[in-house]
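[Help] Beginner question about ligand-bound structures

Sorry if this is basic. My supervisor gave me a protein sequence and a SMILES string for zinc ion and asked me to "get the holo structure". I don't really know what that means in practice or what format the answer should be in. Inputs are pasted below exactly as I got them.
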Amino acid sequence: MKGFLLIVGSIVPKLPTKIINMLLAVQMATQRSLNTLFPGLCFVCHLPIRDSHFLCRGCLEALPPMPENCCFHCGTTTGQPVFGCGSCLLDNHYPDRVYFPFLYKEAMADLIIRYKFSDCTEWTENLVHLTMERVGDHLIWEDLDLVIPIPLHPFRLLWRGYNQSALLAGGLAKKLHRPLVTNGLHRIKMTRPQVRLNQKDRQHNVHNAFLARRCVVKNRTILLVDDVFTTGSTVWSATKTLKKAGAKRVVVCCLARVDH
Ligand SMILES: [Zn+2]
Ligand SMILES: [Zn+2]
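Answer (accepted):
No worries, everyone starts somewhere. Holo just means with the ligand present. The predicted complex, written as structure tokens, is below.
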């Protein structure tokens, strides 16, 4: 609905710049005063916080980290240091590398659900910061050319108003000093939400769901960004499309991976 409101907003005649600047200054001053008088509450333990938008330091440190020793290509926990598990080594359509700073459970699952569906877009900076803290060194080492988010279908984007993966990708692109490219990969199929589907149906649902622009992705090392990695069907389908269009390497970064 937010997208619809934005369109309506753009039709309304514009206010004079002087009045807009005055309103913005009042809004910023009010926000600063409110932050001092009424600090935010931690999303998990509800204690007051001053230095973060959503979690206190204790709860931040308690977020479930990814286990060590995961397959480089699909993130499956292997229990021992290996580059790729058996199934990934047999299929070159898997990402060249996947990174997940957290497991999708407990507070992190609640946090992502609210970030995705409840307009908590002001958390982007914090989530990007956490991601960089945990996997930033690896991402820098990957020597990336572009950052591309998993796109939403235009109808879903209009209904939801924002693409949380694009917000995360934008934040990461800024930190990594790499361009954010939103026209390199398009979702051309209106897929069903993956959450209620089993693995086979998920793969079928996202089969041929994406279209990549060859002139943008050819011979590029791409950071593909999504919020949650569940069974991997979405990022694998997008990776396959990017590689067919000539991408040199596809590195995936998702905020969290479902524990399986
Ligand atoms: Zn807390
Ligand atoms: Zn694997």
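A couple of things worth pointing out: The beta strands are 40-41, 48-49, 97-99, 102-104, 146-149, 185-187, 210-212, 221-229, 249-258. The chain has a mean pLDDT of 82. Feel free to follow up in the thread.
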